[in-house]
Specification:
Layout: H1 6-11, H2 13-20, H3 33-37, H4 45-48, E1 65-70, E2 80-86, E3 91-96, E4 101-106, E5 111-116, E6 140-143, E7 146-150, E8 155-160, E9 169-174, E10 184-186, E11 192-197, E12 204-209, E13 220-227, E14 243-246, E15 251-256, E16 280-284, E17 292-296, E18 306-309, E19 315-320, E20 325-330, E21 341-345, E22 351-354, E23 363-366, E24 371-376, E25 394-399, E26 405-410, E27 419-421, E28 426-431, H5 435-438, H6 447-452, E29 458-463
Amino acid sequence: MNKIVYAWFTQEILDSSLRSTQCSNRMAAAASASILIGAVSLATPAAAVAAPCTGPGAPATTQTRCLTAVQIPGNPLLSFDISWADDDRSEYYLSDRSNSGIDVIDTGSNTFKRTIGGFVGVKFNATGGVNNNISGPDGVTSHGRWLYAGDGDSTLHVIDLEAPTASATQQVISTGGTTRVDEMALTPDGTLLLAANNAEDPPFATLLAANGDNAASSVTTISKISVDPAIVPAGFGLSLEQPTWERETSRFYVSIPVIANNPPGCNYGQLGGAVTCDGGMLVIDPRRVTAGSAEIGAFDAGSNTGVVMLSGCGPNGITVGPHSNLLLGCTPQNNPSDKTTLVINAQSKNSVHISGVTGSDEVWFNWGDWRYYTGSSRACGLPGGCPAPNGGAVLGVIDGQSNMLIETIPQSQNSHSVAADPRHKTIYVPQVAPFSVVGAGGDTTTVGAGICGGNNGCVAVYVHPDE
């Protein structure tokens, strides 16, 4: 949509469609491997019990307030990925690579419960930095007793949350790649799962028959889904990112950071210099997916499937808000000119840009307060542009009705993950441990330590109190 009409569109076109339907800096670790994957935490006992929620990450002037910090036992948090909140179980799940497992937090009491292990953990590249592409766990989602988590070796772990920790993993399924199974999404009944292998070249997604409410695990692969190579060419490190399910259209929607020829003649990596191509949004109707393998091309309005070309957005995260609206976390790391956040309607494809927040990875809509939350670790823009002393990473808060930015709250560097429990109106944001503890890739600001009340990293708990 033409950007000139944003203000008018926000009040008229988008509202009409609403009523009609419903600096991640590269994580490097100069610190020794024992700091990251050894059995002993380097944080001091005094740091673990210090008072949390102080400093820039706990402002007294914002509507969204820092409530407490949940400490994670084990290794300090350097590398983690996506998180998920299940309000039916009152649990929050964090893909904690530093401790090679899924951390489980009770969202009623905001206390740590356990870590479900068995994942590959932190893997390093030749220069000693963390290799996100083969580290794990990564993406995570859940339905009922079943939790699904991707690992760095291209496998999907199926976990029974009703089982003891030692025997919780019921299946480990290969998706056929060599790199991580990343973000994923389930249908509301829990019977279909879409998981993205974002680091493969070319990237692909896997559609699986999931467990639903079954008492025993029997997950199987339905189809490997790829994108037309004219849209996502191989050999240039292009990817598929976070998927989500939208109920009214009965479709999966997947964010694509960069696609070719958007606009025509742009640079998606085939030329020297900065990327100038915007991203896209892949729309998948699972009823139309061919068993075994399927390739999806350009968007077809008649079937509401295919790749929608986005304007001014190279997205990572995606989430469903009210009235079939989708919020996408655009980031300048995908295209330096993409410095806003985008809301697009799943039915009409009308869209509006939100200024004032950018650089988001995971994004989440909280039905408890009708607000979007963004894990904007790249809010300062490109590397080197992060202002002192707070580093530029923020938790973004956006009104779900007006699609207007409410506030941003400083976070530790690389705090790119966010999830919320609507029943308790609590928002969970993992914090990276300080550089002084974990080395390169750690937080070089004081924001995370102030939020956590110590130097181990933590999961910050924010709340939007009833007004």
